[in-house]
Amino acid sequence: METFASAAAAAQGYRYEPDKFSAAQLTEQASELVRAPRVAECPVQLECRVASSYPFGSPAPHATAFQVEILRAHIEEDPVIPGTHYVDPLGWDPLIMKFCEFFGGGHNVHPSKLAEGWKMPHQLRPAVV
Asked: Which residue ranges in the chain fall short of pLDDT 50?
């Protein structure tokens, strides 16, 4: 098990963190079907197994995309459309990272230190609504 970030990863803002739950101030919750723990504070949790992996990049592969099979979904009641088993896409607005910046509600919500490490050619700007 690697206990440090490589020099290249560290230069891009990554660091090794042995206790990720404590560092993020989140609560570890046991999964039912897989070994990886879940995050108790997350309203939608998916237990998955890796079905396939696809290395990509050019000229040599330098990243991997994973295809997963969802084995079990854990979903709080709040984001579910009443009377159904469907998540309301307007009622659930997860924080996502795209292109090294954080987005929620379709807006940039927080700058990322990873964006600095990757030397992204733009700066965080509020979305025009």
From this structure: 1
